[in-house]
């Protein structure tokens, strides 16, 4: 099994069924990044208060600032849905950490539970991929335990708008002309799409070697042609209720 296939397979197994037992956790609070980092830890988990990051959770189970156990660990970055939170998939993050991964998740600026001021703007659809690139840069260059990461094994997990984010980072482009044809309501989002002032040249990150995409948003903007540049292993999940949302 090749390294890319192994990473995608490991992501799938952990996200589906791996029992979370707790993990090392560092809270991430910088001027530009707010979230948490989970990683393997040998100590017994306990309750970790989240302080100013406590939306919608007050605490997680884990070991705060526990020494990282292991070396050359794969990294997985998480992207949450619209107006969501870095901690909404903490159980999956804990399971992955127990399985030997480092996991990093942040609140997307202007599109999270504390601040949704940019959630309805097209600029937010453009800024989200850049947010994740910034997170990966931080983990590889500035995180104090960066030497524990294997930079050749970076994965991505995204839900809803985070799923869209992952597809863009994997290389997909967007057909906003097609989106405009489906956008029939008078929402701010649809008005912006119909105006033609849409995001262009969205960034790809070739450091990401595999991705799990759950209920991706804005599916109408993706076609066989716009998805064709993706050349990494993907696991794409679509729920029955999510499939009804053809736009966002």
- Taken together, the total number of domains comes to 1
CATH architecture group name: 3-Layer(aba) Sandwich
Question: Ends: how far apart?
Answer: 36 Å
Name the CATH homologous superfamily: Alpha/Beta hydrolase fold, catalytic domain
Low-pLDDT stretches: 243-248
Q: Which term fits the overall shape?
A: globular
Largest sheet: 9 strands, mixed
Question: Rg from C-alpha positions?
Answer: 18 Å
Query: Number of helix segments?
Result: 7
CATH C-level label:
Alpha Beta
Helical amount = 25-40%
Category from helices, strands and their pairing = alpha/beta
Number of strands: 9
Biggest sheet strand order reads 3-4-1-2-6-5-7-8-9
β-strand amount: 15-25%
| Helix-strand sequence | HEEEEEHEHEHHHEHE
The CATH topology is what?
Rossmann fold
> What average pLDDT do the residues reach?
88
List keywords for this structure.
248 residues, alpha/beta, Rossmann fold, 7 helices
Protein model, in words:
This protein has 248 residues and is of the alpha/beta class. The chain has a single domain, classed as Alpha/Beta hydrolase fold, catalytic domain (Rossmann fold), CATH 3.40.50.1820. Helix content is 29%, strand content 23%. It contains seven helices and nine strands. Strands 3-4-1-2-6-5-7-8-9 form a nine-stranded mixed β-sheet, sandwiched between helices. Helix 1 packs across helix 2 and helix 3 (122-141) crosses helix 4 (161-169). It is globular and about 55 Å long. It starts with a helix and ends in an 11-residue tail after the last strand. Residues 243-248 have low confidence and may be disordered.
């Amino acid at each position: 099994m090749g390294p890319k296939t192994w990473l995608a397979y490991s992501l799938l197994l952990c996200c589906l069924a791996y029992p979370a037992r707790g993990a090392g956790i560092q809270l991430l609070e910088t001027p530009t990044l707010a979230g948490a980092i989970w990683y393997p830890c040998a100590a017994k988990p306990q309750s970790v208060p989240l302080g100013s990051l406590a939306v919608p959770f007050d605490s997680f189970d884990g070991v705060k600032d526990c020494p990282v156990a292991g070396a050359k660990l794969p990294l997985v970055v998480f992207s949450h849905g619209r107006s969501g939170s870095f901690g909404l998939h903490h159980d999956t993050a804990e399971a992955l950490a127990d399985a030997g991964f480092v996991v990093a998740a942040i609140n997307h600026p202007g599109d999270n539970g504390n601040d949704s001021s940019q959630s309805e703007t097209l600029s937010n659809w453009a800024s989200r991929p850049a947010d994740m690139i910034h997170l990966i840069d931080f983990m590889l260059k500035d995180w104090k335990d960066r030497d524990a990461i294997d930079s050749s094994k970076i994965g991505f997990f995204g839900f809803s708008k985070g799923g869209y984010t992952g597809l863009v980072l994997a290389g997909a482009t967007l057909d906003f002309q097609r989106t405009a044809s489906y956008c029939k309501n008078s929402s701010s989002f649809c008005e912006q799409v119909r105006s033609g002032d849409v995001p262009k040249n969205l960034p790809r990150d070739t450091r990401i070697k595999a991705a799990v995409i759950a209920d991706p948003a804005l599916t109408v903007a993706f076609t066989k042609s716009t998805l064709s540049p993706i050349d990494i292993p993907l696991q794409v999940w679509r729920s029955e209720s999510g499939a009804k949302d053809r736009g966002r």
